[in-house]
Amino acid sequence: MKSHTIKFMPSGREAICKAGHTLLDCARDNGIAVSSVCGGKGKCRSCKVRIEKGVLTAPTSNELKRLSNSELERGWRLSCQAKPAGDLVVYIPAGNSLTSTPAFKEELIVKIIPDAGGRRPRKGYGVAIDLGTTKIAGYLVNLCDGSILSKHAMANPQDVYGDDVISRVTYAMSPPANAKRLEKSATGAIDDMMLFLSAGAGCQPVAIAKVAICGNTAMHHLVLGLPVDQLARAPYLPWVKDAVNISAKELGLKSAPGADVYFLPNIGGYVGGDHVAVLAATGALNIKVPTLIVDIGTNTEISLADAGNITSVSCASGPAFEGGHIKHGIKASPGAIDKIIIRDGKVKYRTIGGGRPEGICGSGMLDAVAQMVDNGIIDSSGRMDKGHPLIHTQAGQSAILIAGRDRSVDGEDIVITQGDIRELQLAKAAIRTGIDVLLKSADIAAPDVKRIIIAGTFGNYIDIKSAIRVGMLPDLPARRFSQVGNAAGAGTEDFDRYCPQPWDIKLQQPMHDREALHGNW
Ligand code: FES
Predict the structure, then answer these.
(1) What's the gap in Å between 122 CA and the centre of ligand 1?
(2) Probe ligand 1: pick from 21, 34, 41, max atoms within 8 Å of CB?
(3) How far is the CA of 99 from the centre of ligand 1 (A)?
(4) 25-28 — which CB contacts under 8 Å span 24+ positions?
(5) pLDDT tens for each residue of 160-189
(6) Centroid of ligand 1 to alpha carbon of 34 (angstroms)
(7) 348 & 473 share domain
(8) How do residues 327-342 score in pLDDT, each as one tens digit?
(9) What CATH number is attached to the domain comprising 290?
């Protein structure tokens, strides 16, 4: 066997694929982001790519199971399975690539930089970073007056090792080099972020004096090089809960080695510093009436805030809202169907960007299921009515056609199957269960909840009516809901109240003594 040259389109980047490696291995080795929801096990279709030129090894049994004959004939392969048999040109569709830049929501930019806002004016710049599982958002702040000088968003390059935290934790667990790879990938991204931010503001990155980072507990542990095995088994304990102060140099940052880095504290194994930031951003401690704060993601964190008390729960809502485990699911990106209406026996849809459809993103799936309930196409248990004129059978299961092959980008019918409905039910049921558990434990009836704050990028785009219709959210008047976007993307002025002296919070063990930290757990 020998290595081969792979040209990835549409970027045109070329990479060497080592002998015996899959296309996904090659992409990962070269920092080319291809979605891999199942972590490369051949169980989803998120890593699907089209071979434009060249020859590969024969399709594996997983590919024969996950791809239709017509897809295989037209060159579609699963990159986690397919191995090159020569030089190749490979097309990565937008929905399976992770290079798009998510939009910011200006009004929710929050300052987790301690001392920003002029409370204790300092010289220099600070950087606030929301280290998300999928994307990373950053802000460069003038420490003298708290003003935001530049901002940037990028895909988390760790995504090439798995789309969700469980895939990445599993990857990190063996062999040891894997964890190091994830750590380097995250610190490299933080360095890139600081370079982008400083270039955007016309300053030198070495002038960055403070960096504040929030992330879920797994992201926090992976970038700090802490053990993650315990996050994968009950009772899912974090290795470190306290806020962490560490020097940029020790963290391995090269762009601003003199900076101090502050990580927000974690609440638990699956309620991390990103949710702490959401709670700070929404002023949770000052909320006087029963309020639910729901941060929807692959892992959804929910808090019930009421008169100074906050109770939190996390639920594994899974990747369905990001297109994972859905036959034609893709992330919200140009070409994704994000809105679906079924009226007069016809399915109508809208795509992001208005172009031809490539797949269906989470908000589209939510709409589709709500519309199918309204139109009697599925019953209250989620079962599709096989006798309904819009339902047909495909590969042994019921399905509804959303966009025909004459319209779709890859010439394939875009459908929602019975299996997809079940995946969405699992996701929405996880969220609703979390809400119900919180309310029950506080002895509060759903109608007594005065406000529901929906955070997270996906949460910002869902149709609340659809979410209520499918039972994901309690049936409350629309005025009680607010969608606040990426609230974790920053802290607020309120963060100081939540955590009065953030820079003074110390780890019980100094971070440079990581072995001692591990041993004393
Ligand atoms: S099928 Fe390839 S990553 Fe899931």
Answers:
(1) 48
(2) 41
(3) 18
(4) 26/84, 27/79, 27/92, 27/160, 28/160, 28/161
(5) 788 778 889 999 998 889 999 999 999 999
(6) 10
(7) yes
(8) 999 888 889 999 999 9
(9) 3.30.420
